[in-house]
Amino acid sequence: MARGNVMLPAKSGEFIAKHAKHVKINKDGGEKLCKEILSSIKCNQLQMPDTGSDSIHPSKDHPRAVDWVFVTDALNFCFWSKNKEKQWVVDGFTGYFALEAALNRAIKNGVDITNPEFYSKITKEQLLDIMKGDTDVIIPLFEQRISVLHEIGSILIEKFNGTFETCVKEANKSAIKLLEIVVDNFPCFRDEAMYNGQAVSFYKRAQILVADMWNFFNGTSWGQFEDIDNLTMFADYRVPQVLVYFGVMSYSDELMNKLNNDELLESGSDEEIEIRGCSIHAVELLKKRIEDEIKEKQLAVSVPNSSLIDYYLWCYRRKHAQEVESIPYHKTLGIFY
Fold first, then answer.
1. Signal peptide: which range, if any (predicted)?
2. Of the residues 62, 183, 198, 285, which has the maximum number of CB atoms within 10 A of its CB?
3. Three-state DSSP state, 199
């Protein structure tokens, strides 16, 4: 898969890390996090920190389960707020889990939110009702979310028989092919930038969509992909925070001052690109370190892929939020993460 001269995420991360001026990957931090992850592998599986959110995940028994996952990941971006008082909360859940809770509630109430015939024409009032929170705070980037739903719904109807199942079938059990189908056909998933004269990519939402399908269906049925290990981590604003917390990455004084002062980083700025790109490369290096450690100690366990490592770190931040919050996370407005 390649879009013209755009580097794929793994190569983009390596390229960005090589030229980064504001972000550094540290060997010692990688060793520390490697030990943490190895200690969490039980019964040949990486055990995820419990986040208490099982009740709001999409249901495999739903007749449009595949489209439920698709809609969720299409809207999976930008949940941060300037302060906790203005945080969007649904049934006590915040961030991405608030989105899951809102969609789960809508489906239980009979709203046809998994059907592109409905959401391709969804009105402002309808989406406001679906995303209604526990307070008066509205979900961030509300207008952009309407546009995303209109875009993906229209494209599904026009090109894919009104269901994301068609995309999965066309991918023929290839995660990379499905990634390509999503990025080529749905512009809102086209997470790319220019850095140091080179077109680079992150594809956070597109990759997490494929990984969610794999994880949700336990690697079978609609989630059976023979090349799932070729995905990278999903470069957002929370996982880099955990990487800095463990010392895997560090920021320049200038960048850290900006984050401590709660300054917005412009989407596509060098600093924002370096945080995301170095996060991708850091997890690739971490995966290799884990693999080497497993081989050296002859451990009878499988090497977790990058998507599992990403989810572990994301859940770790959720479970240990108070400690991890000592590290500021970068804030960028946009639909890519």
1. none
2. 183
3. strand
Token representation of residue 53: 């959110």
Closest CA to 336 of 204, 212, 213, 233: 204
Q: State yes or no: is 136 an active-site residue.
A: no
pTM above 0.85?
yes
8 A C-beta contact, residue 92 and residue 46: no
Give the tens place of pLDDT for each residue, 214-267. Answer: 999 999 999 999 999 999 999 999 999 999 999 999 999 999 999 999 999 999
C-alpha closest to that of 141 among 336, 329, 335 = 335
Half-sphere exposure of 337 (CA within 13 A, CB side): 26
**Would you say 75 and 114 are in contact if contact means Cβ atoms under 8 Å apart?**
no
- Please report, for the chain, the start and end positions of each structural domain, with discontinuous segments joined by +: 9-49+61-325
Q: Report the relative pairing of strands 249-251 and 23-25 from DSSP bridges.
A: antiparallel
Distances (CA, A) of 176 to 170, 181, 272: 12, 9, 25
222 burial level (CB within 10 Å; 0-12, 13-18, 19+): middle
Catalytic pick among 191, 212, 236, 270: 236
CB count, 10 Å around CB of 68? 23
Q: ∠ CA(221), CA(224), CA(226), 5° rounding?
A: 155
Total count of residues recorded for the chain: 337
What is the distance between the alpha carbons of residues 217 and 326, in angstroms, rounded to a whole number? Answer: 36
